[in-house]
Amino acid sequence: MRKDINFNLFLRLFQNMLIAILMMNFLFASAQDSSEKLFIEGNTAYNDGDFAKAVSFYEQTLEEGQHSAALYFNLGNAFYRLNNVAESIYYFEKANQLDPDNEDLNINSAFAQNMTIDAIEAIPKSQLVQIQQSIFSLFSLSVWSKITIIWIWLFVLFFLAYLFLKATQLKRIFFFISLLSLILFMITFPITFSVDQQQKNTQYAILFSSRADIWSEPNQRGEIQFVLHEGTKIQLLESLEEWNKIRIANGSEGWIKNANFRSLTD
């Protein structure tokens, strides 16, 4: 009798879980359909030359919680057509974070960069830094994390198989496969950790102020080092009340007061 009660209780719990999962899937699919419709309407408006309307649809798609390189790319293109330099560069940079090897994106981003007032030459990167960045950019942080987890799980599974199998030949095979999985885990883990730390410790933003004076210290008793304009990409180093210390691509640093910028991590 008790076994029947336990089984019925288990069956009821399983049914409730199944219903909850189906409802979540239905809601998720509905939300995706809604955002997909907005994205398509944005594309239609863009193709019709109504770029302001296209921006409106794309921004509604963002509000639905949908983020993709294609959406950011189209937003960048629409703002470029509206001669909105800062917004255009901001969304091209967002798209580049998700799809850095997209040739069309890189070309259009270069056109948008040419619209900025500030012509800043980046410091050349060493061969070692270029190799490191090319490895880090092979996958996003989430993909690197998944790969790392997969390798450690494979190591555990293959090592358990090695421990419990009787046949010598199979034990040898599973031992070497588990060893290979462990080596690959030891390679991907530091990469994942480095990518995570790099993203946490390196914060970039796009300047939206039409003009911003960059000071030598966080007060106006210092000297103005240089002047920046909207659309320039800056690295945020530290903040002090209404002041932010920044660095630009050529390595120059300074303090900016009450500037209007938008972080690329938002």
Tell me the helix content. 55-70%
Q: In the CATH hierarchy, what is the architecture of the largest domain at level 2? A: Alpha Horseshoe
CATH homologous superfamily annotation of the largest domain: Tetratricopeptide repeat domain
Mean pLDDT reading: 86
Give the number of domains. 3
Main sheet characteristics: 7 strands, antiparallel
Instruction: Return the string of H and E elements.
Output: HHHHHHHHEEEEEEE
- What low-confidence regions span 5 or more consecutive residues with pLDDT below 50? 1-7, 26-31
Q: What is the CATH level 1 assignment of the largest domain?
A: Mainly Alpha
Major sheet: arrangement of strands: 3-2-6-5-4-1-7
Q: What proportion of the residues form beta strands (DSSP E)?
A: 5-15%
Number of helices: 8
Which structural class do you get from the secondary structure elements?
A: alpha+beta
Shape: globular
Query: Rg to the nearest angstrom?
Result: 26 Å
Q: Write down the CATH topology of the largest domain.
A: Serine Threonine Protein Phosphatase 5, Tetratricopeptide repeat
Q: Give me the count of strands.
A: 7
Distance between the termini: 57 Å
Task: Fill in the keyword field for this structure.
globular; single chain; SH3 type barrels; 7-stranded antiparallel beta sheet; 266 residues
